Every structure is written in structure tokens, then in C-alpha cells.
From TrEMBL:
Chain segments carrying region Disordered: 134-177
InterPro entries: BlueCu_1_BS, Cupredoxin, Phytocyanin-like, Phytocyanin_dom
SUPFAM superfamilies named in the record: Cupredoxins
Coiled-coil spans in chain: none
Skewed-composition ranges (Low complexity): 155-177
Stated name of the protein: Phytocyanin domain-containing protein
Signal sequence interval, chain numbering: 1-26
Molecular-function annotations in GO: electron transfer activity; metal ion binding
Keyword presence, Metal-binding: yes
Residues of the Phytocyanin domain: 27-126
This protein's record includes keyword Cytoplasm: no
Amino acid sequence: MAMARAFLLAVAAVAAVLAVPQLAAAADHPVGGTGSWDASGTSYNAWSAKQTFKPGDTLSFKFAPSHDVTEVDKKDYDSCSGANSIKSYTGGSAAVKLTAPGKRYFICSVPGHCAAGMKLEVTVAAAAVTAPAPAAGKPHHKRSVAPTPAPAVAPEPDASSTDVSTPTAAPAPKSSDAAAGMLGGKAVVGLAVGVAMALAM
């Protein structure tokens, strides 16, 4: 029993260490640098251009009850229209999770406020994967890779043979499968830590 407990604690410790970089990677961005969402003359886009936003980060808005934060598409952002909003936040504060790479657009939908400067465009960067640089002094050879051949299509069966089946290609994985894998990994880490804590009692 003691051996099993020690093993589970070791697994939980390793899982927790591996989870730390993911937890540390997410950042909270107070909008405008202070989180204040108002028509005071702050250039939200100048502020945004100096930031690096990644999936998992959060935008924090703080605003008076006379304002709102409305997420819109590019067309409505350009025309300062909240008529076709994606999501609207009221109540004085909003925490908006940036979940995927791409552009996000926010305005205050109160008439005149967007035109007075209450608009924000955010570019969420894709997670960068960097390859290690080749070692100095060693020649770098490019390897050519032959293209993958297309799957062969089975010939049409003749009328005398009805027992032939045509092979089908497996469907391409969905992009959401990668996100599900990350969430699944976090669930495993959480479960491992929970088991370790329960056993430690």
C-alpha cells in the first residue's frame, strides 16, 4: 500500500510540474493598461498594438454602468454598430477569454461612444513553435521528402462479383480535436493532483 501511495504521489508531482508552463502562459490584460473602458481619449488600438495576446489570455474591462462592452465582427466594428453583436457585457466589468488565434473586435454600443474612441481590435497570435537552430560548424543538409501518394481507388466491380468493397479514406481530424486533447490533458493533471492529495491525507 505504501509503495502504491508513493508511486501515485510521484505521478501527481510530475503531472503538476508539466502543467505549470501552461498555467503560467495565460495572462490577464487590463484593457488600455488600466482596465478602464471609457471615452477619456485612451487609444485602445495603440495599446493593443503593443501587446502580445495568446489563446488562454483574458481581457479585463472595467467601465461605468453607462457603458457596455460589445463584441462585434469587423464590418460592425468599422461602422460602430452593435446591432449584430456576438456578445455583450454590462454591469461594470467584463473578463473576456481569448480562446483562439485571430482578430477580435470590441466596441461600446451606446450611441456615440464607439465614434468617440471606445473601440478595440485585438489580434490573438497563434502559439509559436520554434525549431532549434542547427549547431554551429556542422553542415546543414536539406533532405528532400517525396510527396505522399494519393490513395488508390479500387476498380469498379464487374457485374459477376458483388463481394468487392471500395476502400474509403479516414476523415481528416477536426481542429477541435487538438483543443479537446489539451483540455483532456488538463483534466488528467487535475485528477492526478486530486488523487495525490486524497492519498496524502
